[in-house]
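Illustration 12: Aspartyl/glutamyl-tRNA(Asn/Gln) amidotransferase subunit C.
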Amino acid sequence: MDKKTVTTICYLARLEIDKEKAQKIENDLEAIIELISELQNIDTSNVEPLYNPLEKTALKHNDVIDSDNQKEKFLDNAPSSNEDYFLVPRVME
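Figure caption equivalent — predicted structure in C-alpha cell form:
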C-alpha cells in the first residue's frame, strides 16, 4: 500500500485527508491486508462449511392458505372505521 493508492481511494470515496491521516490510513490498510493474508493461509480443508453461524435452525411452519377474510373482524375491533378504512385522529392540520 503506497500513498498514491491511499490518495486514490480517498478521492474515490470523496474524503479529504491531510498527510498525517493519509499515513495512518496507509498503516491501517496495510494491517488489514496483512490480516486478510493470514486468514487466507489457514487450512480449512477439513472444516465443515457453515450455512448458519448458529447451530440452531429456525422452526419452519407450513404455508397454509386460509380463505377466511378477516377484514371485517379487524374493522369491528377498531375504535372507529369507515367502510374499508380505519379512522384515526388527525395528527397534522
